[in-house]
């Protein structure tokens, strides 16, 4: 079950989602990171600015959205296990 909850910026016509991934590219590009939960490509600077990072055993992980960050925080070992295959 995903806990992603888009945040709507009040007073505007557009919703602002704390979701910073690219749905069309799954391979990590230079200067990009891969969300360990869903496998999406993430811009580390945008993720950090949005508070979508987590530290685990001395390494920083970057997430596309709040739901993936929360899922990772609940069970980092699951998502870092080499047999885990990220999916959207």
Plain-language structure description:
The protein is of the alpha+beta class. It has a domain of 60 residues. It has a 3-stranded antiparallel beta sheet with strand order 1-3-2. The chain is globular. It starts with 20 loop residues before the first strand and ends in an 8-residue tail after the last helix. The N terminus is likely disordered.
Quick tags:
disordered N terminus, globular, single chain, 3 helices, 3-stranded antiparallel β-sheet, 5 strands, alpha+beta, 88 residues, two-stranded antiparallel ribbon
Write the layout of secondary structure elements.
Elements: E1 21-22, E2 33-34, E3 41-42, H1 44-49, E4 53-56, E5 59-62, H2 66-74, H3 76-80
Antiparallel strand pairs: 1-3, 2-3, 4-5
Strand content: 15-25%
Terminal-residue CA separation: 12 Å
Helix content: 10-25%
How large, in whole angstroms, is the Cα Rg? Answer: 13 Å
